[in-house]
Write a structure and sequence with these properties.
The complex is a heterotrimer of chains A (about 290), B (about 325) and C (about 525). Chain A folds into two domains: about 50 residues, no CATH class; about 200 residues, MetI-like fold (Orthogonal Bundle). The C terminus of chain A is likely disordered. By secondary structure, chain A is mostly helical. Chain A has 13 helices and no strands. Chain B is mainly alpha-helical. Chain B has a domain of about 200 residues: Orthogonal Bundle (MetI-like fold), CATH 1.10.3720. Chain B is about 70% helix and about 0% strand. In chain B, helix 5 packs across helix 10 and helix 6 packs across helix 10. Chain B is flat. The mean pLDDT of chain B is about 85. Chain C has a four-stranded mixed β-sheet. Chain C starts with a helix and ends with a helix. Chain C has a domain of about 210 residues: Periplasmic binding protein-like II (D-Maltodextrin-Binding Protein, domain 2), CATH 3.40.190.10. Helices cover about 50% and strands about 10% of the residues of chain C. Chain C has about 525 residues and is of the alpha/beta class. Classes of the chains: A mainly alpha (about 290), B mainly alpha (about 325), C alpha/beta (about 525). The interface between B and C is medium-sized, with 33 and 36 residues.
Chain lengths: ~290, ~325, ~525
């Protein structure tokens, strides 16, 4: 970015405020995450005594050990990776397609469509009818239950509409005059310039699917189809002793529920943190420069 | 409102056929996965027993408005409503502007490692679940916790503050934690919107001598106005159901306790305690319906208001 | 660019196809998938003698279960005795069972302590009499068969028994209890700290209050009476006679509206005003945090659940080397037992191999099966002494103190038919004499009124809803009253409390319970 003018005094003040604010923000956001990270590497019982701030006091990988103890974790990981990748792909494409089409204010029946969509966002019959539906469709206990239900994200349809509305209609018109059909216009012209929005969709929807243990809990019975988020929930639950059970068993061990939860969080967050830098490069400005002139 | 002639309608539809098909695919999908299960809402008017299976939703006897009456006449009802709406409003007022301001600030920063670091750091708290937050909250926020010791050492306070037990503190605590947790994440949406702004507008503004603040005020913000309005309307719709992007259930359930229950108990936690935890699906369905209807009303009202004041709306 | 995208797309599709292939195949053969269970397990019907194990799928409705597989010494013994193996799924969410019932997709067996009324339904599970007819297996060898059958029949609308609840003993059994005590709350305390400061161990509630004051002067850094998680001040409320105030053999009153309860509130409030308990610790719902304070010299007296394992935990995790924990002898009246049993094993309508299920059910509920599930293999792990109390092997006792070894090596979590006394002996036998005396003091005067538990309404009935609301109110207002700073605040909090209870329907609930209890007493002859 070219520097147009020398920085004014206002600029300098703003910059300083910005940098101080960012420094504080970085500390306030990174430190708790780091704290949880070192807690996960510390013996749970010892960690519960507090006083650990910068480095683990009694280092252990024991909190993670339960997560990688046998083959079911590898399978769970495989299911999670493929279901998240495929599910996000399907979901983002579908959502973006619908959002694009709805961004045309002259679309016939548009008000009706929007009303239906908004109503669907706020009304739900609850889990029992939903289960009955999935059962009727044969999705219960099938791999596709991770992909097909939830393939349309209403929130991002609405956000997407605002994004697509900003794109000048001239782009589409000139392409169609060249003989391109709607689908071609969408995939060849609109999508490439919607990278920031696409990246956002992929991130939000992807993270949602990665962390989703709910679908697995209710709609999957087969052990071969269990995903990572579900398996982690199970480990966390098993470290909690029910206070109300009449027959609670022995419970002295070094791991605490919190220590296992922190390890689970790190395992769940790490892939996202690795992927995000790749998505970040799509947050570029100036995508519109020079695209339509005259 | 001008009504189109039927003939125009038809040909207009046919002209837009590909686009219409895209949308209809979506509508069809919603009809199957969202609208059909909505039939289950009738549960809220029936004495439904799970032992009758899901067919029982249709065969169970009607009880009319019994559950609605039970919910509305419960002595806790006013407090629940006050808390639900109050917490959501607090969050709206404080956590809504923040992601926007943060996104604007980020977009204005020089591109480089510092900006990347700031952005990455900002959304880290999103990954920390409320469960973990409540687990470590004792260490940080109890009267012998780090924050209190810090404030005492600085002589800012004389007695430790009961962050976790003081009912008066709960709304503030919930809001601040939410700000910390979600600002960076939501900023991504607004950042993406800002990335779509035509650079040429900035360039000509600079040539005209506009300062940074002026550029933000006259170019950046108006350009992302549709996005802001959309998110705002949806957030207003969620006032009764929870904060922006979801419900406050987890937060209230985990951070609420016997001491601050006056401020932390919301409709969702109550429905869970008295409804779902006891297997009362019909009751939960009834209360859910109340929430949905009110949310929808909010959405339509705020949409109309936005159209009039901001000139941009959801639909 | 497009080629790359297509390549990625293809790769992901292939991966997905592979996995869905796996998923598809496995979901057909994995025992436990809803309706496929019927086909799969029918094929493997066995008599138990041929060496082939029948595999049944089971859903355990307790998310905190520390084990998720039917492995270990005790499960092996059960497999050998019944010819049945179990494919275990543990609940992750409390709504799971409800959805399963509504959709008719239960596995072969269910073990649950909640929603037992819903499970006791002919559409959902098989009643025991029908099961006996179908399979020819008799359940009458079950311990306390008559009483437990009658109790189970009160759970259903059609009056048939669909299970036998575990963890139950008759009052005759309790009279013969040789050591240990019924499950209840208690207070553990730091014996070393009291001795060091020359403070006498209190024997009643007045002495207790003075003792706490002395503790506070001697150890100002510590909370005299700590708290953590679920139990809070329950031992105190019991010792002030709150449970006695609930039921006098004739009339039932929800405890929060009794005069005994108010005196408990006053007592607790005085503890608060003297700085002997902390509001923050009371508010904390997280057990681990409470325990951690106890380990870390944070408190001198610590209320918790009476159990050998809990005591061991306190002692072995204590941070200071000189820490010596002990069990405080009860300071007041014992609690009113209302035990009718805890959880039950149900055989669902989807069960693929009812004979195997019936065999397993009969075995686990028999005296022999119940003991095996809690004590291990007879002769190897335990032997009955002349008092009828099991004496355990060294190995067993050692494993008992280490939860990882305990669950992986022995695995006592398949106690679906064991009695309460089985569990008590499992927990306490082999303990050193003086510790055992401290624990056993809690069994003095303990009387069980099964009619109280049996009369309790199901959670989805009208009265059950009232009960839930009463409990909800109690949680909120109890805190308000106990932690009031002035007498006026206290009185007004109590008034609000009572008003709230009234508006929630406490009168209806009391009348209902009194009637029900009388009915049950007549029917059962208690």
């Amino acid at each position: 970015m070219k520097r147009w003018l020398k920085k004014s005094a206002e600029d300098k003040i703003l910059d300083t405020i910005n940098y101080i604010f960012c420094a504080v923000l970085i500390f306030v956001t990174v430190y708790p995450f780091y704290y949880i990270f070192i807690i996960s590497l510390n013996e749970g019982l010892d960690a519960s005594f507090g006083g650990i701030y910068w480095f683990p006091r009694k280092f252990t990988l024991g909190n993670y050990r339960d997560f990688f103890s046998d083959i079911k974790w590898l399978r769970g990981l495989g299911i999670s990776v493929s279901a998240t990748a495929l599910g996000t792909l399907v979901s983002v494409l579908f959502t973006v397609l619908v959002a694009y089409a709805l961004s045309f204010r002259e679309l016939v029946h548009r008000k009706l469509y929007m009303t239906i969509i908004i109503v669907c966002m706020y009304f739900s019959g609850g889990i029992i009818p939903y289960y009955a539906l999935l059962k009727a469709l044969g999705l219960i206990n099938h791999y596709l239950v991770y992909i097909i239900p939830g393939a349309l994200n209403i929130f991002f349809i609405l956000i997407g509409i605002t994004f697509f509305e900003d794109i000048p209609g001239s782009l589409r018109e000139s392409a169609m005059m060249d003989g391109a059909g709607e689908l071609k216009v969408f995939s060849r012209i609109i999508l490439p310039i919607s990278k920031p929005f696409l990246a956002t969709c992929i991130l939000f929807i992807g993270v949602g699917k990665w962390n989703n243990w709910y679908d697995c809990t209710f709609f999957v019975q087969s052990k071969a189809l269990r995903n990572l988020a579900y398996l982690m929930m199970q480990v966390i639950n098993s470290t909690q002793v029910s206070a109300t059970s009449a027959m609670a068993g022995a419970s002295s061990s070094n791991t605490t529920t919190l220590s296992v939860q922190t390890a689970a969080m790190v395992v769940a967050a790490l892939p996202i943190l690795c992927i995000y830098p790749f998505l970040q490069k799509y947050f570029v400005t100036g995508m519109m420069v020079g695209s339509v002139k005259g | 409102m001008r009504r189109r002639k039927v003939g125009q309608h038809k040909s207009g539809f046919r002209k837009q056929l590909p686009l219409q098909l895209f949308v209809l695919a979506g509508i069809l999908y919603l009809s199957v996965f969202n609208i059909i299960p909505m039939a289950g809402l009738v549960m809220g008017f029936k004495d439904y027993k799970i032992t009758d299976g899901w067919l029982g939703i249709f065969t169970a006897p009607w009880v009319g408005l019994k559950f609605f009456r039970e919910f509305v006449t419960d002595f806790q009802f006013p407090v629940l409503v006050r808390n639900t709406v109050g917490i959501s409003l607090c969050k709206l007022i404080f956590t809504f502007p923040l992601p926007i301001a943060f996104a604007v600030m980020l977009s204005d920063m020089r591109r480089g490692w510092f900006r990347k670091l700031t952005q990455t750091a900002s959304y880290l708290p999103h990954f920390i679940s409320w469960v973990i937050i409540s687990g470590i909250s004792y260490q940080f926020l109890s009267s012998s916790g780090i924050l209190n010791r810090f404030l005492l050492a600085l002589h800012v306070i004389k007695k430790p503050i009961g962050f976790l037990t003081d009912a008066g503190m709960y709304w503030g605590l919930a809001t601040v934690l939410d700000m910390w947790k979600e600002t960076g994440w939501w900023a991504i949406v607004f950042l993406a919107a800002i990335m779509g702004i035509n650079m040429e507008m900035y360039e000509s503004a600079i040539l005209d001598g506009a300062s940074r603040l002026q550029r933000v005020r006259y170019i950046t913000l108006p350009s992302i106005k549709p996005t802001i309005v959309t998110v705002l309307i949806l957030a207003l719709g969620n006032l009764f159901g929870g904060g922006l992007g979801g419900s406050n259930f987890e937060q209230s359930y985990l951070l609420g306790n016997a001491m601050n229950s006056e401020a932390s108990g919301i409709i969702q936690t109550y429905v869970y305690d008295v409804g779902l935890a006891n297997g009362r699906y019909a009751y939960a369905a009834a209360v859910g319906m109340v929430q949905s209807v009110i949310s929808l009303i909010f959405v339509f009202v705020s949409n109309a208001a936005a159209k009039r004041t901001a000139g941009s709306s959801l639909f | 660019m497009r080629k790359k995208l297509s390549a990625y797309f293809l790769a992901i599709l292939t991966a997905a196809a592979l996995f869905s292939g796996c998923g598809g195949v496995s979901s057909e053969t994995a025992a436990g998938a809803g309706d496929s269970g019927e086909q799969a397990t029918k094929a493997s019907e066995s008599t138990g003698e041929s060496g082939e194990l029948s595999k049944l799928s089971i859903f355990i409705n307790m998310s905190w279960y520390p084990v998720d597989s039917f492995t270990g010494k005790i499960p092996d013994a059960i497999k050998a005795a019944t010819g049945t193996d179990l494919d275990v799924t543990i609940a992750t969410d409390s709504k799971q069972l409800g959805v399963m019932i509504a959709s008719g997709e239960l596995p072969d067996l269910v073990f649950s302590d909640t929603e037992i009324n819903e499970l006791s339904n002919s559409n959902v599970c098989i009643p025991l009499d029908e099961l006996a007819e179908m399979t020819g297996v008799s359940f009458e060898n079950a311990e306390n068969y008559d009483e437990r059958t009658r109790i189970a029949s009160t759970l259903s609308e059609d009056g048939r028994a669909y299970t036998l609840l575990n963890n139950y003993n008759s009052n005759e059994d309790w009279d013969k209890l040789k050591l240990g005590a019924q499950g209840q709350t208690c207070i553990y305390y730091r014996q070393d700290l009291l001795e060091a400061a020359g403070i006498e161990v209190p024997t009643n509630l007045e002495e207790f209050r003075n003792c706490l004051k002395e503790v506070k002067t001697a150890y100002p850094e510590m909370t005299p009476l700590g708290m953590g998680g679920y139990w809070k001040l329950q031992p105190i409320s019991i010792w002030t006679g709150v449970s006695q105030g609930k039921y006098d053999g004739k009339e039932y009153r929800y405890e929060s509206a009794t005069p005994e309860y108010k005196s408990f509130l006053k007592y607790a409030n005085s503890l608060y005003r003297d700085g002997l308990i902390s509001a923050e610790e009371y508010a904390n719902e997280n057990e681990e945090i409470g325990h951690q304070r106890a380990y870390n010299d944070g408190c001198v007296f610590y209320p918790w659940y009476l159990a050998n394992s809990n005591f061991t935990q306190l002692q072995s995790n204590a941070v200071s080397d000189s820490a010596k924990w002990a069990v405080l002898a009860p300071l007041g009246q014992p609690p009113l037992g209302d035990g009718k049993g805890w959880g039950g094993l149900f055989i669902s309508r989807n069960c693929g191999d009812v004979t195997a299920a019936a065999r397993l059910f009969a075995y686990l509920n028999s005296v022999e099966g119940g003991r095996t599930s809690m004590w291990g293999v007879e002769g190897d792990d335990w032997m009955l002494d002349e008092n009828g109390v099991p004496q355990f092997s060294e190995e067993f006792l050692e494993a008992r103190g280490n939860s990882e070894v305990w669950y992986s090596k022995y695995n006592t979590m398949f106690y679906f038919g064991a009695s309460a006394i089985d569990e008590i002996y499992m927990n306490y036998s082999g303990m050193e004499e003086d510790k055992l005396k401290e624990f056993s003091a809690y069994s003095k005067g303990f009387v069980n009124y099964p009619e109280l538990g049996i009369a309790k309404p199901s959670t989805t009935s009208e009265e059950g809803v009232i009960y839930t609301k009463l409990e909800d109110i109690r949680k909120k207002y109890e805190a308000k009253a106990i932690f009031s700073d002035t007498d006026e605040d206290f009185e007004s909090a109590c008034e609000e409390f009572m008003k709230a209870l009234d508006s929630a329907g406490i009168g209806t609930y009391n009348t209902y319970m009194t009637e029900q209890i009388q009915k049950v007493k007549q029917e059962f002859g208690f």
